[in-house]
Specification:
binds 6-O-phosphono-beta-D-glucopyranose; eight-stranded mixed β-sheet; alpha/beta; six-stranded parallel β-sheet
């Protein structure tokens, strides 16, 4: 299949390329959980942005389904108000009107087998006739995960899941997909009872981020990086996904999940696999996902002893972020007062294959860190010092590539340069590429690309069943040890800091240190721990 991994075109001058982009088929999107936050903040704005860029089919309609009873008219006014609120850079009223005309709603009890699903079927039927849309539907399950299998079965049992006469039915599932290996396997098995793997799109919104997608282009579309992208040149890799926010209104979910489940087997493992995978034979969905899956299988499993040495957990207490006092986790809304849930996790992974043997991957993620910051740092080995023995240089600057995921998207190459002057001295300098400077501000929720890909049937940026299970397979032994040995020192880091001291020690034991992330692109001379 020809590069199904289409690139969304950003500028008018790319017209020739845009002609090659596969067009989305006319279709109906049915959103379960239509009155929720995700629909309001991400899905509708993403659809709007797609329409604005002419990526939505012109014959298109949306059917919202929620527990709340509401008329289509009421839902339309909600959608309109929300679009006005959540569209960055001023909303286009004509386009909002276009959306309102093709948005419908039906409400009821998701557990009810008959009424709600019969109503959905009738409504979708009416909508397809009215807007002259062929029977292509995709269902977006923005519901609690406990409902995924049930809602899917009801869709199918009501005759809305079968793909026939060239028409398609696709299902997008939000994360979390399971809460451990056993539940993920169960969910996969339950879904596969009534639908096929190629109808399933397990979403991970990290794959909708431009910089994440750029990892493959950067690695495989340039000839100078790949030859050195291995254990012969790379000392280690650091991946940080830090948030300054706490749990906000999601305490109910978060307290039963924790940082490890919430971020690592999904978002952070996407970053690991894209960074570590071998070049796929093409950008076809399974070619890319096969290579990602190989990395997940090559990650060495954690024994209980490894968990004690190579996994760190933390929970924030009160502290100060950006000059403002913030409360500790245990007093946040819907959090148990003696909760043992971790809000920070760090791991040292070993990828046991030819390319990466002996190159540790250090991962960390946490809430209430000093800043929102996600990056991947590829730290290269030092050059031999021999030539500099008789100079005033005491230590060589080591090279690193920093892939900035957010908030500033870009890539930095860090290297040493001679400090001007009569003596030989070296200082660390950076070469920076910043997306905004180069391509201008792109308005995106991160969901545009993923919704578009589902409409064109490209599952490359979605997780396959085996990948989800492989991810859980790695973290479940850690969760088991942490459950068996509840943390006794929580809270063990103050809000506004980079996690507990054990996180620093995880690298210090190996003679390394987490890079200073606050000003990663402008490293002060001398601040260059390996
Ligand atoms: C979600 C997690 O999947 O990702 C949240 O459930 C987290 O806890 C969020 O805050 C982070 O996403 P982003 O795009 O802001 O890095």
């Amino acid at each position: 299949m020809l590069a199904s991994w289409n690139f969304v075109i950003n500028s008018a001058s790319d017209q020739a390329m845009s002609d090659q982009i596969k067009k989305a088929d006319p279709c109906v999107m049915v959103i379960f959980g239509a009155t929720g936050d995700l629909t309001k903040r991400k899905l509708f704005p993403a659809l709007y942005n797609l329409a604005k860029g002419d990526f939505l089919p012109h014959t298109f309609a949306i059917v919202g389904v929620g527990r709340q009873e509401m008329t289509t008219e009421e839902f339309r006014s909600q959608v309109t108000a929300n679009l006005r609120e959540f569209i960055a850079n001023g909303a286009d009223e004509k386009l909002i009107g276009w959306f309102a005309e093709r948005t419908y709603y039906t409400g009821g009890d998701f557990d009810d087998d008959k009424k709600l699903f019969a109503d959905i079927k009738d409504l979708v039927g009416e909508v397809t006739v009215k807007h002259q849309i062929p029977d292509n539907y995709f269902y977006y399950l923005a519901t609690p995960p406990a409902l995924f299998a049930n809602v899917t079965h009801k869709i199918v049992n009501n005759g809305m899941g079968k793909q026939e006469n060239g028409n398609w039915r696709r299902f997008i599932f939000e994360k979390p997909f399971g809460h451990d290996l056993a539940s993920a396997k169960q969910l996969n098995a339950d879904l596969l009872k009534t639908i096929k793997e190629d109808q399933i799109y397990r979403i991970d919104h990290y794959l909708g981020k431009e910089t994440v997608q750029n990892i493959l282009v950067f690695r495989f579309g340039n000839s100078i990086f790949e030859p050195i992208w291995n254990r012969n040149f790379i000392d280690h890799v650091q991946i940080t996904v830090a948030e300054s926010l706490g749990v906000e209104q999601r305490g109910g979910y978060y307290d039963s999940a924790g940082a490890l489940r919430d971020m690592i087997p999904n978002h952070i493992f996407q970053l690991v696999t894209l960074t570590a995978m071998e070049p796929p034979v093409s950008f076809e969905a399974n070619a890319v996902r096969d290579e990602q899956a190989k990395i997940l299988h090559a990650i060495q499993p954690f024994s209980p002893e490894d968990v004690l040495h190579c996994a760190v957990r933390g929970q924030y207490g009160d502290g100060v972020i950006g000059g403002a006092k913030v409360p500790g986790y245990r007093v946040e809304e819907k959090i148990a007062p003696f909760s043992n849930t971790e809000t920070f996790a760090a791991l040292k992974l070993s990828i046991d294959n030819w390319r990466w043997a002996g190159v540790p991957f250090y991962l960390r993620t946490g809430k209430r860190m000093p800043a929102k910051h996600s990056s991947i740092i590829i730290q290269f080995k030092a050059a031999p010092f021999v030539l500099f023995r008789d100079t005033s240089i005491e230590k060589l600057t080591t090279n690193r590539i920093v892939i900035h995921i957010q908030p500033d998207e870009g890539i930095t190459l860090h290297f040493g340069a001679k400090v001007p002057g009569p003596i030989v001295n070296m200082g660390p300098v950076d070469m920076d590429f910043n997306y905004v400077d180069h391509f201008g501000e792109q308005v995106s929720t991160g969901y545009e690309r993923l919704l578009f890909d589902c409409m064109i049937g490209d599952a490359t940026l979605f997780q396959r069943a085996d990948m989800v299970e492989a991810g859980w397979n790695i973290v479940t032994p850690i969760l088991d040890v942490w459950n068996a040995l509840p943390a006794r020192d929580f809270p063990n880091y103050a809000a506004g800091t980079w996690g507990p001291p054990e996180s620093t020690q995880l690298l210090e034991r190996d003679g390394r240190a987490w890079k200073d992330l606050i000003d990663q692109t402008r490293t002060a001379p001398g601040n260059d721990p390996r």
